[in-house]
Amino acid sequence: MNRRRVILFAAGFSLLIMAFLIWVLIPSPVLDPLYQGQHLSYWLTGPGISMQTDPHDGLVNLHVVRTVTDGHRRSSQVVPPLDTNSLPFLLKILNHPRRPFDRPYTRFWTAAPRWLQGRLPLPGDAEFNHAAAAVLVSQLGDAGRPAIPALLKNLAKDNPAYRVYSIYALGKIGNNSQAIRNAINDYLANTNANLGNSNYIATARTALNKLNHRPSVP
Known about the structure:
By secondary structure, the protein is an alpha+beta fold. It has helices at 3-25, 40-44, 87-94, 102-111, 114-117, 126-138, 148-153, 160-173, 178-189, 198-212, and strands at 34-35, 38-39, 49-54, 61-70, 73-78, 176-177, 216-217. α3 packs antiparallel against α6. The chain is globular, with a radius of gyration of 22 Å.
């Protein structure tokens, strides 16, 4: 093999490696589907997102609500019913890690004067976005079960108010596996009711009760 062939082979092999690395490291774009004329990201992220409760069947039914301010008028819009087209985007949110600069930037943005806030990107709250995505994926029923690994992973978050939304979703879509039961029992064992967490504890116990009435899986 002469030198020219060696160079061509090395160049071709290098391009192949680069193409493989690009394919592995750069994720494919995830569709941001439309619901009532707005992208799902509009309903899921940004300011004005909150949770709304509606007691039903022993477990509070949660809805994600977006509050919009137009001058002196405020209106609240419940996120419309989703379909399985939303699942890839919801999984992207659930699997998105909290970046180390999220909290410092949020503190900086909050303390900045209003004229500067309007010229800066809005701060994100990865944990709250996870919570909202968990509530939305719970509304998909059995179709939301591909989110179970991400929901279990998010039980490791620091804030118990956000962890309980993953438990809420597992109670809605989870299978009766030992991993899910262990995760919820661990949450119950490490959550102090004296710190104002009684509603979270009640939600976790109800979720566990719902799982116990389903067929056991490994």
